[in-house]
Amino acid sequence: MKGQMSYILKPISLVMTIALLLFLYSSISESIAKERQASKTLNLISTSTNILLILANSEDCLAYRSPATDGLYANIVDVTKLKQMASDFKNIEPPCARNYNFGWRATVVEINQDPQTPSKIWSFGAKNFSTGPAFKNDINTSMPIAIRYSDKDVIPGNIYIYLVNGELENIAGALDWSCDLFRNGRLNATSFGIHTSFPLSYYKSTNELCSGTKQKSCRVMSCPLAIKDIKAPGDYVWTISYLQGSLVVK
Amino acid sequence: MKGSVILSETMLETTAILISFILIVLVVQLVFSQQNQRTYESVFEALGRDVSTSIDRAAATAGNIQMQIDIPKGLRFRLDIDQKALIIKYGDKNSVRTFFSSLIKSGPYSFENPKSLCIVKTVNDNSVYISNKTCSCNTNDNICDPECNVENKCDTKCVNDNSTGVCNPFCAKENPGICDKNCYRGYQTGVCEKNCIKENERDGICSPDCEGLKKGVCDLDCYDQYPNSKTGYCDPDCPAKSKIIDKDGVKYKVQDGKCYTGCINTTASTPTISTPSKITLLKDGICDLDCKDSKNICDPDCPDSRACQNVCTKENQTGSDPCCAGLVACPGDNICRKDCCGNGRCEWRPGTQYGWPEGYKTKWETNYTCPQDCGQATQPSCQTGGPFTSSACYEDVFQGGTRTGDKPSWQPGTISICDSEVKKFLDRRNWDINEVIKTIRARTPEGWAFDASRYIRACQRLQPAGFTISANENYKREDYTCCCLSECPDDRATYIGSECCGVGYCADHASAVLSVLRTLGVPAKDAYTTFDIAGDCRRHAFVVMKCDPDLQNQPGLWPNECNGNANRWLRLDATGQFVTFLDQTDCDVMCIWWNDKGLYALNDGISSDGKSGYAVPPGVRCGGNWNPSNSRCKQTNVDCHIDELCALAGVPQGFKCIIPGA
Fold it and tell me: Is the CB of residue B437 less than 8 Å from the CB of residue B447?
């Protein structure tokens, strides 16, 4: 009888032990996944704040440099630079604050104390973003600034940013980063893996990489591409080279 | 036999224990190895994120800054920083890549097992420098420390240091005779390194730091870069002394095909209708024969430069440029005249054939202002308006120092029907309400400007309609918000000066628009001025007009907007520069309507004391929070002053009452 009990109990205890271990393993994996997600959200918040600060305080972006003191003032933007940026970067992020992991669009709004006068608005950055399964997460945030017209004319305003993490932003960012490195002669060839939830197509006439089937999201690229359309979603490994100013993607 | 069974059982037990032990070990090892890998990965990801964020925060600082990151002990990795990316390589083939957003303008960097990282932003050359050491400015070692820029010290090792490229402006002050190539760039470094510029030598760099500075030597790179009407950096030492010859007491530059316009007088280069579209060089004592008269460039040092003279100021002369000083270049034929009426071309408003440029409202030619060119039309008769000339401006009501409401303050002599200025305004718009609406909708200078200094003692200074109209007709600027008084209460005023005087604010605009409509012939029952009062003192005056079907067949009185909208009320807002339907705009409290006949009588909802009721004609609708009931007025503490005004119970002294339908 004792022997029979042993025959039943031992396999059961073995199975139970393994099940317990698997449960522990899955719990750990789940908490790791949650931690990663929290880390990505934190990264998105941190990046959006950094981009707003760079836009407002970097001389390469919008910051006003006083010729008298040859210095910058915190969060005072130059209206001339603002107008130029809104005109030059209608559908792509300006290089001074581009982050190759994300896509964003910024809007500067003048705070108008007179309700009769319409507020002035300037906008620049990417126009389209990943949608559906290609979209990962996004954030909307803002920061107060001052818009300088002249020494006597400085008007309060706000700068808003909409930052998106998605597959199209990641893929276009990796290609644009490679393009910049190729142009600077710091890269001969490279390869990286991508994941896409939608077919990808490239339009040479507008230099846009588009993701989607019927409603496409498109991004203007830094370099022209020589690439075959990707017709099915999935994981791909791309080998990139640079030929006569174009990225050759295979 | 029994023993073999026991043996078999023991063997089975041992095998089972062994298998279970192996399985447990395998699972535990899997968990531990994955955790180990994940821990490493998350450590390096966090490190990458910290470094990237620090780089971005340094780059986004308006002044100099240094930040030190201490790397946790025991981590072995290689850190590569290049082109907005940071790559950490660890283990055999593992790596983590993080992007940052700022342009650092230095690098690339590669550090093996760094213990500390020092990130320095130098504002003079707008760069971020990264080194694998603790942040310190040591002027005695053999290393260039960008931290010395932050501490306002010169580190002599930075001068011409290729490895870092740091431009230390304090070294330039301490060693004025040395050319520091790190400070001599095609972008701003905060230092004009004049020692790097050699006479008659080109090095491909025109330093923006030297713009406008006299250095005693002409930078040929700047000279080459900005010839032929292109504006750019001004090098006042150009052209080079060796290229100057003296002839008949005048210094000439030897002709080399390059007209250097880097130092153009930009204030004189903006073309206007009355000034030539030419570029005027700064007077430098040298006549540049390559510039002289080429592309209409005026070099004031050339004694006989044709471009420096006003070549088309003579009357009746055609000019390729509209440069008729003291005259006007008629848009129809470009001939300079004192008056364009009579030249056979009907020169009307901007956007029409031969239209005047923006800001020339007083010169528009129509059937009434210039029948010679535009064709004769019968001058409309002007009916005299009613006796009520007052307009209201709202003031705060205080009780014990606390604002408790609003009350209208009336000022006579503001509504002016058939005033000469009003008639001139209508002459220029062909006595057509649709042309009036175009002006109300137009941006400045065609539309009406807003004098923000009217908010100083506004209620004591309401002005006659003709005065407002005349000032706006003569206003040629694009500045919408301006100030007549130097004591300007609005920071948004982009122009302060006499041209702004009289252009008015909303109450003035409303009186003027009402006078225009009534002079044009819109019946009193269809046009009123009103004042909307929001709770927080946001008061605004505008004009309302009914799409009265009786006007449909009367020439010049039927706005296009009224087609298919009979009996709706239009809102004409010259201050807001829009015309739309009243029911599509937001109102809050609209207690009184008035025109030259007086105040509109109360109608529906009159209380027993006759002091409250609807102050607007029946059927009027407005959007927003507006409710025509008197209770609304009470709720917002707005004193409609119905007892002072016009209740059906009686007409107070000095006020006329418009009876509905009259």
Answer: no
